[in-house]
């Protein structure tokens, strides 16, 4: 007899920050739903299990990066990689999520059938016993992708002329070797983004010297590693209320800074220069290395806890060079200016490759889905793709703020479908909706991936919001059926004649 194909009410792809949160929401808000999390790697945590480079940490506060239902109890408001990973592992275990995770299981493709109103998932599972990969299928009524943005297997590596001639160690932060010893070595970190701003102070104490080699400057904002307001709240309130108070404060404060950058960029630039001047006390260095040509938050603003990045420069253990690479040599890097940087170790912090759905392919009735031709709906559903959610986080605030809203919206939608006897739900945009990139940043790694993700439209519900305070009522109280089709996919299959569009 042929084996029966397993069917789930909900399949969650990914067991990182978003997937664990989504599973918790299903358990608590839709307790009757059967579900599983399919995780391609062998461990919980996603990004926080992958990145192991020196100093790896959050670049937003942990009161908003952590989950609203489970307080962050560590003293630091900026969490290191190990602390965050432990938090996620403990949360999954205590929430009852861990037994639902299928590790070493990667979704290769998924096809939705308008005839059966089901997804068929094609999964590759690694067998630890014999090292082989087995293909199997699972069906589900709703597919929820919690895969994040990053390509975990292939980071971005630009053309670096002569890199093969360099005789020292070359490392990409995404694949940092366990136990790598750089003590007493000359290190050149190529890049100017958040990873570089983390690596430089983390390596400076042990390396002979760390040089940050950037093609162009980025903005750096100093943030406290510990939050005095939150410390005070913890002293006078129990853990739960203290966490909620700290979380509320840390929603408002970064949002205020972001709005300042958007509405008064000259004031924001002056503030960031003031911060740098207070530590570096070198106006020429600020002009040369910390004055970008763009406004703050047109690209991401890098966070430096307790001014550690600037302090490493003042100490003389690290330095910044702004120049272009001519080519690598056996002993280091020759720059366009003719200057040469000697190096024993080169760290190519040159950015990440972005991909959608962990590289899996989607189709509806066998017709491939091009996400770049679709529109995002309420920041979570995708136009023309039925019974499908895509968890996305904020780029200007903690990821979890947005991903938790998305998970709660999915639960609202599922309950609405159950109440009304719907088997299919798909967003349907009105004609003439303008299209623009999903991620409104001009960073190169974002621009390279503009066609990888759905687009934004113009106006609610076709935008990915950037203001948590405005998004909460829109997602949690907005009409679930607005510009949605139920019980059929418009234009597809014989059931299309029965479509109900609200």
Automatic annotation (TrEMBL):
Keywords: FAD, Flavoprotein, Monooxygenase, Oxidoreductase. One of its GO terms (molecular function) is monooxygenase activity. Its EC number is 1.14.13.-. Signal peptide: none annotated. InterPro entries: FAD-binding_MO (IPR051820), FAD/NAD-bd_sf (IPR036188), Flavin_mOase-like (IPR020946). It holds the Pfam family FMO-like. Its cofactor is FAD. Belongs to the FAD-binding monooxygenase family. This is Flavin-containing monooxygenase. It comes from Arthrobacter flavus. The lineage of its organism: Bacteria, Bacillati, Actinomycetota, Actinomycetes, Micrococcales.
């Amino acid at each position: 007899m042929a084996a029966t194909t397993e069917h789930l009410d909900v399949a969650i792809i990914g067991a990182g920050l978003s997937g664990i949160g989504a599973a918790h929401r299903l358990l608590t808000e839709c307790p009757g739903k059967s579900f599983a999390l399919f995780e391609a790697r062998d461990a919980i945590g996603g990004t926080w299990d992958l990145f192991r480079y020196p100093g790896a940490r959050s670049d937003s506060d942990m009161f908003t990066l952590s989950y609203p239902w489970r307080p962050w109890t560590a003293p630091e408001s900026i969490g290191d990689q190990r602390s965050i990973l432990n938090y996620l592992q403990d949360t999954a275990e205590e929430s009852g999520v861990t037994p639902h995770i299928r590790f070493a299981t990667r979704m290769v493709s998924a096809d939705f059938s308008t005839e059966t109103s089901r997804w068929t998932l094609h999964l590759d599972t690694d067998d630890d016993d014999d090292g082989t990969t087995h293909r199997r299928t699972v069906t589900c009524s709703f597919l929820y992708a919690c895969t994040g943005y990053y390509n975990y297997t292939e980071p971005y590596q630009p053309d670096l002329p002569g890199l093969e001639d360099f005789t020292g160690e070359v490392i990409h932060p995404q694949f940092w070797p366990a136990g790598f010893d750089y003590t007493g070595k000359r290190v050149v970190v190529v890049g100017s983004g958040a990873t570089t701003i983390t690596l430089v102070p983390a390596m400076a104490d042990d390396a002979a010297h760390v040089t940050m080699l950037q093609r162009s400057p980025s903005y750096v904002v100093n943030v406290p590693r510990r939050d005095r307001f939150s410390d005070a709240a913890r002293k006078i309130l129990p853990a739960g209320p203290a966490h909620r108070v700290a979380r509320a404060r840390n929603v408002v404060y970064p949002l205020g800074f972001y709005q300042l950058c958007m509405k008064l960029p000259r004031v924001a630039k002056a503030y960031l220069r003031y911060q740098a001047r207070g530590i570096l006390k070198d106006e020429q260095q600020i002009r040369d290395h910390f004055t970008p040509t763009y406004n703050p938050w047109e690209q991401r603003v890098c966070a430096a806890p307790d001014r550690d990045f600037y302090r490493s420069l003042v100490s003389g253990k690290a330095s910044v060079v702004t120049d272009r690479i001519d080519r690598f040599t056996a002993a280091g890097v020759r720059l366009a200016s003719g200057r040469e940087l000697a190096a024993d170790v080169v760290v190519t912090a040159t950015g990440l490759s972005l991909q959608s759905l962990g590289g899996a392919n989607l189709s509806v009735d066998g017709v491939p889905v091009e996400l770049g031709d679709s529109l995002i709906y309420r920041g979570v559903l995708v136009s023309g793709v039925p019974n499908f959610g895509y968890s996305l986080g904020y780029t200007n605030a903690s990821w979890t703020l947005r991903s938790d809203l998305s998970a709660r919206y999915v639960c609202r939608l599922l309950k609405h479908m159950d109440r009304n006897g719907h088997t299919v739900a798909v967003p349907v945009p009105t004609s003439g909706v303008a299209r623009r990139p999903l991620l409104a940043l001009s960073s190169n790694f974002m621009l390279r991936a503009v066609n990888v993700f759905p687009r934004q439209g113009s106006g609610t519900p076709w935008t990915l919001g950037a203001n948590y305070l405005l998004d909460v009522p829109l997602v949690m109280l907005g009409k679930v059926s607005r510009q949605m089709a139920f019980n059929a996919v418009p234009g597809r299959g014989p059931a299309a004649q029965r479509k109900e569009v609200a």
